[in-house]
Amino acid sequence: MVQVNDFTFSGLHMAGNTSNVVGSRVTPVFAAQVPGLNTLGISMARIDFPPWGINPPYTHPRASEILTVLECSLQVGFITSNPENRLIAKVLQKGDVFVFPQGLVHFQRNIGHTNAIAIAALSSQSPGVITIGNAIFGSNPDIPSDLLAKAFQVDKNIIYQIQSRF
């Protein structure tokens, strides 16, 4: 009972609205948007950044990502797993590609003076996205502030301030 619309998506040619607190917009093309991707193990996304906009630290629990810069330059990186927690980072120019291994925390930032555009390909039709700040400080209900204060080695009042922003 499939139809042609189950296999198409229109809109990646249009810039996403980046007027938000982080300065980026991800336009996903996952199985939720294109049902024909279901069970194929692939998906993609367009990411738009104004100057100095970021895609804040996040992870895909079910996919690796390969990112291609289409416009401007991006600083990108990921953090290796414990105990090293080593930052692997690079500045990418138009046409450059970078790979983010599945499950590792990673980020992107536009370091140019014009809008940046990137396309991400992912190894899952439903990669999942966990934005670290949102997950830690914006959970519902809140993670107990004393636990976060101990984990981040800061005063509870700092945790309350951060949680109030999420």
Automatic annotation (TrEMBL):
Entry GO MF terms: manganese ion binding
Binding-site residues for Mn(2+), renumbered to this chain: H60, E65, H106
UniProt keyword terms in alphabetical order: Apoplast, Disulfide bond, Manganese, Metal-binding, Secreted
Keyword presence, RNA-binding: no
One annotated Gene Ontology cellular component of this protein: apoplast
Annotated binding of oxalate, by residue: N55, H60, E65
Pfam family, one: Cupin_1
Localization annotation: Secreted, Extracellular space, Apoplast
Domain Cupin type-1, first and last residues per copy: 10-160
Similarity comment: family membership: Belongs to the germin family.
Full protein name: Germin-like protein
